[in-house]
Specification:
Radius of gyration: 25 Å
Strand order of the largest sheet: 1-2-3-4-5-6-7-9
Shape: globular
Strand content: 15-25%
Number of helices: 23
Structural class: alpha/beta
Helix content: 25-40%
Distance between the termini: 45 Å
Length: 661
């Protein structure tokens, strides 16, 4: 092994943390500016000090990546283009992105800026890597939920396509797959896709049946003992999480990882002493996702710093005095680290350059923002799509003007034969692909499409969109692909031959009204659905209703079907439901019903969807599903005049539409 086979990538939430990372030996640092990044709570950089940061880092052979890893609103396109113009004049080493419209702009107008795909893009299969490679991404940050056996073939596939793999090796674990977690957004409009996550997963809940008060709270990630396995799997970038952590935390973690990488490269026995890592903030550690040991042991019933608990256990404290002695030593150790960092960085100079902070307003946008081709306004009622997930609902309707979609399981490989038979038996059915398709389940998606060749499909997974393009199939980007601006629509159509896309349900009316639909492209919106707040590879019943199994296995994915609820002590209750063939999901307590959108924006959408899957929330129907479909058809055909939909479906909520991003 040689040192250039790895990149140690450190967080830089403020200037002191950036200095600490450089002093500790980071190969690269990811940091955000004061806008457009997924850690708004961090202090972040300004354009005044960016060049000073770059100069200091480059003097120490350290790269600087700028995080632009949020969804971009239509109104923000001019500002993000002006910012890219400014970044293009600096010596930054790359930009990290989530938004497809931004990736499209970078590809076609700023080809000199190296593009990295954010963890918010939730990359976990080969098709997604191809998809992002087509947008010129030179690396992708893989989903934290993957294990080593799943990472290795992706790394090999990436090498074949000149895409490097980046993996989080230390810091916070999220309970849900990144990019499709909307719990904070639904709660108070603080979207994780905009860097404002308020971390409801770390909140206290009403004590559950298993005695847990923090049933969604995971331990922290630490792959410190797994460096050799990560190297064998072909991982290039080893990423430390923590842009809202203090500089002494950044220094300690990066320093220990620097030592570990150097040991591996020098052929020296790896270190297993984790005392330093436990000294700075942690919620205890787990590497269970990496080893596929997902289960109860990943949870901890305390979201705060675990350091004192860890060392009182190690020291076998028996008295209050023993605990106080441990606390004092921890305080003294952290003080020593802080002093050490201050000493090592005392000579580091970051000279601000106020002249570099040219105002974003008024700066040139180049010809990038020339008028986008736009389809004519919609003058006919939108076409109705219906989503189901039960074979008993396959015969719900055969209206020629209704498209009926069947939700495919996330564990598609185990159900492939049955799914092929279902679609061949019912050719009017169209497939609806989930956001998560890992390993064999993604390969099964390929086999399904080759076998049934549907006239149209909806997918929440960009890898399936890539497959559809390669097979010449018409496809629609689903709501969990998070489309929020005209350039994302243009990207999907021009780069991937998408036939249409759902506009994100996180937007409000003002945020979506100026989005331009390209000519020949369909615009979709889901007006009735259970509000999926997050999807987790973890078992959400381990700490709630209980489960006899200590670990998740393949049988759990295929056979388990459960339902429970939890109550957040701050505000709301949530529904947890696990369907056979799919991962656990958390839902809002009521379905979303948004009839206001069609009154507010009658010429915006060619298609709307209603979701009739059997998700058990407080929302109840007073009519059959057949009658409900007829009622929706009546509402659409009568130009959205008042109907009894509010009476036949209740209670419902629509707060997100009013809050927006």
């Amino acid at each position: 092994m040689t040192r250039d086979q790895f990149e140690l990538l450190a967080p830089g939430g403020d200037l002191e943390s950036i200095k600490a990372a450089i002093a500790a030996g980071a190969d690269a640092i990811y940091c955000g500016l004061d806008r457009f990044n997924a850690r708004n709570r961090a202090t972040n950089l300004t354009l005044d000090n960016l060049n000073g940061v770059i100069n200091l880092a480059h003097q120490h052979q350290c790269k600087i990546f700028i995080t632009l890893n949020v969804l971009i609103l239509e109104s923000e396109i001019p500002a993000i283009v002006r910012l890219l113009n400014q970044l293009n004049t600096t010596q930054i080493d790359g930009v990290i992105v989530q938004d497809l419209g931004l990736a499209y702009i970078l590809k076609h107008h700023f080809p000199n800026l190296d593009v990295h795909a954010s963890t918010q893009l939730n990359t976990h299969n080969e098709g997604q890597i191809e998809f992002l490679n087509q947008l010129t991404a030179s690396r992708v940050n893989l989903s934290r939920e993957l294990n080593l056996n799943e990472i290795k073939p992706l790394a090999e596939f990436g090498r074949q396509h000149n895409v490097m793999m980046e993996v989080f090796v230390h810091g916070s674990y999220c309970i849900g797959f990144s990019g499709i977690c909307y719990i904070s957004s639904a709660r108070n409009g603080a979207s994780g896709n905009r860097g404002r996550c308020s971390q409801p997963c770390r909140d206290q809940y009403q004590t559950t049946q298993t005695g847990s008060n923090y049933p969604l709270n995971l331990k922290d990630n630490s792959a410190f003992s797994d460096l050799a396995a990560l190297a064998d799997a072909g991982v290039y970038s080893l990423k430390v999480e923590g842009r809202i952590k203090k500089s002494h935390y950044v220094f300690t973690v990066v320093d220990k990882w620097r030592e570990q990488i150097d040991r591996l490269c020098q052929g020296v026995k790896l270190c297993h002493d984790t005392r330093a890592l436990y000294t700075v903030f942690n919620r205890d550690f787990s590497n269970a996702f990496l080893h596929g040991n997902i289960g109860r042991d990943m949870y901890i019933d305390n979201p705060r710093d675990h350091a004192v608990n860890h060392f009182t256990h190690i020291e076998k404290c028996q008295s209050v005095e023993d605990v106080q002695r441990v606390k004092k030593k921890l305080y003294d150790d952290k003080t020593t680290i802080i002093q050490n960092v201050a000493q090592k960085t005392a000579s580091f100079d970051i000279t601000s350059d106020p002249a570099a902070n040219r105002r974003l307003k008024g700066a040139t946008c180049m010809p990038i923002l020339a008028t986008l081709p736009q389809a004519e306004p919609v003058i006919t009622p939108p076409k109705l799509s219906v989503l189901i997930a039960s074979k008993t609902d396959v015969t719900l309707c055969r209206h020629n003007d209704i498209e009926l979609y069947y939700q495919l399981p996330m564990g598609l490989a185990a159900e492939l034969s049955a799914m092929i038979e279902l679609f061949q038996t019912h050719p009017h059915l169209k497939p609806y692909f989930p956001a998560i398709l890992i390993g064999d389940d993604f390969q099964a998606a390929r086999e399904l499409l080759v076998s049934i060749r549907p006239a149209l499909l909806i997918t929440n997974n960009s890898g399936v969109g890539m497959l559809a393009q390669q097979l010449g199939l018409n496809w629609i980007a689903g709501p969990q692909m998070n489309t929020t601006n005209s350039y994302a629509l243009k990207c999907l159509q021009q780069e991937f031959a998408a036939s249409g896309a759902f506009i994100s349900n996180e937007l409000n009316m003002k945020q979506m009204r100026h989005i331009k639909r390209p000519t020949g492209m369909r615009s979709y919106y889901s007006i009735y659905h259970p509000n999926t707040l997050l999807t987790s590879r973890q078992c959400l019943f381990q700490t709630t209703a209980g489960c006899r199994k200590l670990k998740v296995n393949k049988g759990c994915l295929k056979r388990c079907e459960k339902h429970t609820s939890i109550i957040n002590l701050k505000d709301a209750s949530y529904v947890i439901q696990k369907h056979k063939g799919s991962h656990n999901s958390l839902y809002a307590k009521q379905h979303v019903l948004n009839l206001a959108l069609l009154r507010d924006l009658p010429q915006q959408f060619t298609d709307v969807l209603i979701d009739l899957r059997d998700i058990q929330t407080e929302t109840k129907l007073s009519v059959s599903k057949v009658m409900l479909i007829e009622t929706f058809l009546g509402f659409l055909s009568q130009a959205h005049v008042d109907t009894d939909l509010d009476q036949v479906i209740c209670p419902t909520e629509n707060a997100q539409y009013h809050k927006g991003l």
